[in-house]
Write a structure and sequence with these properties.
The protein is mostly helical. It has two domains: 4-68; 79-119. 74% of the residues lie in helices and 10% in strands. It is built from four helices and three strands; from the N terminus they run βααββαα. The protein has helices at 10-17, 21-29, 46-68, 71-118, and strands spanning 7-9, 35-38, 41-45. Strands 1-3-2 form a three-stranded antiparallel beta sheet. The longest helix is centred in the C-terminal third of the chain and has 48 residues, at 71-118. The protein starts with 6 loop residues before the first strand and ends with a helix.
Length: 119
């Protein structure tokens, strides 16, 4: 703990973080945050608390992205995309056939009118 001005008790740290002071002391014992026990009280720095909160936010965001791209959800996305592509393909084939039929009818009309003119 470099700077004495930034040292805070775990009671103060719990007000900053919303975590219980017992949880914060267990984090210190696990060496997830730096701190010391002086007398009967635990102390840490505000910087350590802020770093821990920042790391937790990053970890939470990584888990959220990982959950979004989980294998189960990815399979669902591929299945739905495949179904949409197949439906689009059949719809395109249907429209192509319908368009081809309309064009052939117009060609017949044009040819029959041309034949009438020639006769």
């Amino acid at each position: 703990m470099e700077n004495l001005k930034k040292i805070i008790s775990l009671n103060q740290a719990s007000k900053i973080t919303g975590y219980h002071s017992d949880y914060l002391s267990s984090l210190i014992r696990k060496k997830e945050i730096k701190g010391r026990k002086i007398g009967g009280n635990w102390f840490t720095t505000e910087e350590e608390i802020n770093n821990y909160i920042f790391k937790q936010k990053i970890r939470h965001n990584k888990l959220a992205v990982g959950d979004f791209l989980s294998q189960k959800k990815t399979k669902k996305i591929f299945v739905i995309t495949g179904i949409l592509l197949v439906c689009s393909l059949f719809f395109g084939i249907y429209l192509y056939g319908k368009n081809k039929k309309i064009i052939s009818e117009e060609v017949k009309k044009t040819l029959s009118s041309d034949i009438e003119i020639i006769e």
